[in-house]
Design goal:
Helix content: 25-40%
Number of domains: 1
Strand order of the largest sheet: 3-2-1-4-7-5-8
Radius of gyration: 17 Å
CATH architecture: Alpha-Beta Complex
Bound molecules: guanosine-5'-triphosphate, magnesium ion
Distance between the termini: 21 Å
Shape: globular
Strand content: 15-25%
Largest sheet: 7 strands, mixed
């Protein structure tokens, strides 16, 4: 079994080395693990640090340097394509800033191992036991709850309670069935599009409670305009994919236009 952990980065120079070390040292992972850092030409030198991590950990860490078409969504699509081309059986996606604790990964993998019918595991802040950073104000909590647990669910009819979750473990067959060519979000709303398409196509989603810690170091890229745009784009996602049924699952030829930039 091969696990590829895909980590998109934009200005994460202060986080990526510590995160990589923690992932490489993580116990209770019984498969061949690989870390794929997908960097969008970060001006703070994250790409160079990632490159040196790859040099120091041959066969365990690699970097995909993207120079065009920036954005979280596009970075993930390229990263997923690369992971599938590398022969990944399970693909974990996570943020680089420690909001997604690596400690949950063995739990995600165990669920997939024990439940062949589960297609994707989602690290969720909005199921019982899930929590947001203790320092968040009630207003920030309310807005986050409204956006994730109410707004996206109301518009899209999602069953998943954390519609914008970015910490997930996908089976290869799930990403193949989704057909990455049909996903076209550029930014953060990518997470919502993937959640919606997975549900429309009838994939089985399991949510696991996580404690979501605020980014430890580094600057936030999440601004009010970005949130407003995501709210608007949720409607576009609905229009684009509402007709999908399980019969529309892709046939597995997802490599598409794999870009072989980087390594
Ligand atoms: N490759 C790539 N990665 C990105 C881009 N935007 C964000 N990221 C990464 O995506 C992950 C999530 O972004 P964050 O900035 O942490 O988003 P957030 O958690 O909603 O907000 P903050 O933690 O408050 O900044 C992090 O690992 C970022 O470095 C991008 O345009 N390209
Ligand atoms: Mg973050």
């Amino acid at each position: 079994m091969k696990l590829v952990i895909v980590i998109p980065t934009y200005n994460e120079a202060e986080n990526i080395e510590a995160l990589t070390a923690e992932l490489l040292a993580l116990p209770d992972i019984h498969c061949d693990r690989h870390i794929l850092i997908v960097d969008d030409d970060s001006p703070d030198g994250t790409g160079e640090i990632a490159e040196s991590l790859a040099d120091r950990n041959p066969g365990k860490v690699s970097v995909l340097h993207r120079h065009a078409d920036p954005g979280l969504g596009r970075a993930y699509i390229d990263g997923f394509r690369r992971a599938l081309a590398m022969g990944a059986d399970i693909i974990v996606q996570m943020d680089a800033d420690f909001s997604h604790s690596p400690q949950y990964i063995p739990t995600f993998l165990k669920i997939l191992e024990d439940n062949p019918g589960v297609d994707v595991v989602v690290g969720s802040r909005y199921v019982s036991g899930g929590e947001l950073d203790a320092h968040w104000s009630w207003w920030r909590r309310f807005l986050s709850w409204w956006a994730n647990a109410v707004y996206t669910r109301l518009i899209l009819g999602l069953n998943v309670k954390d519609g914008t979750a970015g910490f997930k473990a996908w089976r290869r067959r799930t990403l193949e069935g989704i057909g990455l060519d049909r996903i076209n979000s550029n930014g953060y709303v990518f997470q919502v599009e993937m959640a919606y398409v997975a549900e429309r196509l009838g994939f089985t989603v399991v949510e696991v409670p996580i404690y979501f810690e605020d980014r430890r170091i580094g600057k936030s890229k999440m601004s009010i305009p970005v949130k407003i745009e995501a709210a608007f784009r949720t409607w576009q996602i609905r229009m684009r994919h509402k007709h999908l049924t399980p019969a529309d699952r892709a046939d597995g030829n997802v490599l598409g236009t794999l870009q072989m930039a980087g390594r």
